[in-house]
Design goal:
Deoxyribonuclease I, Chain A; six-stranded mixed sheet; 10 helices; Endonuclease/exonuclease/phosphatase family metal-dependent hydrolase; exonuclease
Length: 340
């Protein structure tokens, strides 16, 4: 009798086909994010969640050898490269010992309006930052905060209250020498200030920023009442804010100031605002020295890293993620050193 033709074992076909399907969908999603950017709800949300749907590719690549399928390997190659670009720095940072002592500790925290002071109290007591960039502080909360934290942070500056009923703040152990409002921001942007500190004779310009909030899945009426408008318009506002803050940081650095831009960007790594800020000389401290993804939005682990500390004229030494308390965000703490 002639030999029976060999068949690929059935158990291999199912995981192979699932891997190919995942790879094709992940690659298509990556193209949508990079081409459409934040202009559509779907592409914006895909960008926020990118770390979750790209990370599986890193696990699947080794398993494609078991399938003996070039198609499966080719399908997951692009998302695996993208996942490596997103997560690779954190693995490499674990292998790099810290040799520099920190001179300054800066933290950013979106306290989430009306959520109370538990997360803020934990941040101050456990990590004792020298400078705090705060977002979503309602005017009614300032009196209590100023009373409770005045001894620790005698120098405090608050922005003008936004149309959403909250504002940003900079608290410092070091004297504030000047405060000036940021001009040139697009319509729908929250107010922001440049707060200049005297840090033992060195000028440090601090911007506490909160980029335009998205109006995801909003009805036309809700979008019309949102300060930044629809998802697409809010995306354009965030890009305009990022461009203005990036240009301002360059001007401040050229004038001799070290610069900290810290806050809630409502954007993750694959969203345009963070790319814009990092493209013009600002260093993402967590990307530079962090050892975990640091997904700050939502209960730990969150779904996106939207809270950042960016610096120019300072060297990142270490970063960590604090406890959120009652907030919907986790604080980010960055240890920094003066160059040289």
């Amino acid at each position: 009798m002639p030999p029976t033709p060999s068949r690929r074992p059935g158990w291999r076909r199912v995981p192979r086909d699932l891997t190919v399907g995942y790879g094709v969908l992940a690659t298509a999603a990556l193209v949508v994010v990079l081409v459409v950017s934040d202009g559509h709800t779907v592409s914006y949300v895909l960008g926020l969640f990118a770390v979750w749907w790209l990370a599986p590719a890193l696990v699947l690549v080794p398993f494609t050898t078991a399938f003996r399928s070039r198609a499966a390997f080719a399908a997951v190659l692009v998302p695996a490269v993208a996942a490596g670009a997103l997560l690779g720095p954190y693995a490499l940072n674990r292998l790099t010992p810290v040799r520099t002592a920190a001179d300054l500790r800066v933290a950013t925290f979106n306290t989430s309006t009306w959520k109370g002071a538990s997360g803020l109290t934990d941040l101050v007591q456990q990590h004792d930052p020298d400078v705090l960039a705060l977002q979503e502080i309602a005017p009614a909360q300032r009196t209590g905060y100023d009373r409770w934290f005045a001894a620790r942070y005698p120098y405090r500056s608050y922005t003008t209250t936004s149309s959403q009923g909250d504002g940003d703040a900079v608290w410092s152990k070091h004297p504030i020498t000047s405060v000036r409002a940021v001009t040139g921001l697009p319509d729908g942007a929250r107010p922001a200030d440049v707060v200049t500190l005297d840090v033992e004779g060195r000028p440090l310009a601090v911007l506490s920023v909160h980029l335009a909030s998205p109006c995801l899945l909003c009805s036309p009426r809700a979008a019309a009442s949102s300060p930044a408008g629809t998802t697409g318009h809010a995306a354009r506002v965030r890009v305009g804010e990022a461009q203005r803050f990036s240009a301002l940081a360059s001007q401040l650095r050229a004038a001799g100031d070290a610069v900290v831009v810290a806050g809630d960007l409502n954007s993750a790594e694959l969203n345009e605002p963070l790319r814009e800020l990092r493209s013009n000389g600002l260093v993402d401290t967590h990307l530079a020295v962090g050892t975990r993804p640091g997904l700050t939005r939502g209960s730990s682990p969150g779904f996106a890293r939207v809270d950042v500390v960016l610096v120019a004229g300072l060297d990142p030494v270490a970063t960590l993620e604090g406890a959120p308390g009652d907030s919907t965000h986790s604080p980010v703490v960055a240890d920094l050193a003066w160059p040289g």
